[in-house]
Amino acid sequence: MSFPNNFLWGGATAANQTEGAYTIDGRGLSNLDYMPYGESRFQVGTGNLDPKSLPEDTFFPSRVAIDHYHHYKEDIALMAQMGFKVYRLSLSWSRIYPKGNESKPNQLGLDYYLNVFKECRKYNIEPLVTINHFDIPMYLVDEYGGWKNRQTIDFYLKFTETVFTHYKDYVKYWLTFNEINMVLHFPFVATGLTFKPEDNREQITTDVIHHQLVASSKATQLAKKINPDFQIGCMLAAGSYYAQTPRPEDVWKSIQDSRESYMFSDVQVRGSYPNYYLKQIEQQNLTLPIKDGDIAVLRDHTVDFISFSYYSSRVSSAQPDAANQTESNIFASEINPYLETSEWGWQIDPLGFRITINEIYDRYNKPMFVVENGLGAVDNLTETDEIHDDYRIEYHKEHIKAMSDAITLDGVELIGYTSWACIDSISNGTGEMAKRYGFIYVDRDNFGKGTFRRIPKKSFYWYQEVIKNNGENLNEK
């Protein structure tokens, strides 16, 4: 088992799941500040319920989250103790541009992230920055229609120019959008979209997709002008689709399901819309809102590397059975009887991780970065303040082995691995704190109660050894 000597080991977080401090130092409200805890969360996330119609006493967990805003020094010190080479984090758009349309940025927001990057540099940790991680100022959504409106591209580019310029000496690796394909599954979370009954959802979604893809390419163009050494990546919610049976219809459905996600990276990596997508929108009587210059900017400003999240593989069927689907409600999938399942219905498939890595590399032949991979589970704190999360160690061990096989046996190029999430945070899918992913426990419950105390778990010390030995000692606990 051999990882490259310069392999970047680390962990990932997102501003809207960790920072909190939602009105501190001039920050404006964003879409995730309106994602409720409870039964209505899925309806809001899928764009079927306007969150502003919810009762006044609704609890919105991202507004306080784990208060990383006031604990970032402690948190980064713990990451350094684990030996992190890289820390993936995102920028809160509304912390830097509270409404999104201002002519000048919020200096306190800029200062905050500069201090975060300086803290990373103090420990020789490379920041990997997601510019937009399920985040848009609600003012842009309310007043402009958000990503439905092409003008949002300009607001986004002003934001990107600001952060590229201010942090050009601190950040090398950038991602333009987190899991850009999630607009198909969780549109309010991904882009701030809420639909009315009379809306043409498919056309609106097509417009939003094009606007974000153009914004991504223009941001890549801008980045290279500001600092040619910047490395710009796309980011996909990935996971291979298996055919439920050898029936040709099931195999074809698995290809169609895969294409649905890969269309985004096809554009960002190859520089043009694939023919299968153009035919699809033609058959659905949809139109791409292409303007002068769009085709050229997509073609000429592709990404340097591909990043992706992987949690599970999926199963496709031409005749889906609602009674035989996984409990994971964001990506519908038939149950795979050969896999174990997490407490939240995610099926665990380390070999599927290797399959996915190879599938992406075969498709694009570009360097890749695994920027999310982890297990959400209930962790129990003992009377002696210990968390014995052997299940998390086992999950990561098997997935890191699969990643190693992809490098050493299959010859793929991987830049690094950032586990999700390195510290307990709010689950985007469920809004829970009980669904814990981290190597660091945070004393916070589903209802916002707790001290915010940080406690390293057993997996913290295991991952510390993994990094120290560059992935050579996975069997040690």
UniProtKB/TrEMBL annotation:
Active site residues per record: E372 (nucleophile)
A Pfam match: Glyco_hydro_1
Cellular compartments per GO CC: cytosol
One term of GO molecular function: beta-glucosidase activity
Family from the record: Belongs to the glycosyl hydrolase 1 family.
PANTHER family: 6-PHOSPHO-BETA-GLUCOSIDASE, GLYCOSYL HYDROLASE
UniProt name for this protein: 6-phospho-beta-glucosidase
Species for this entry: Trichococcus flocculiformis
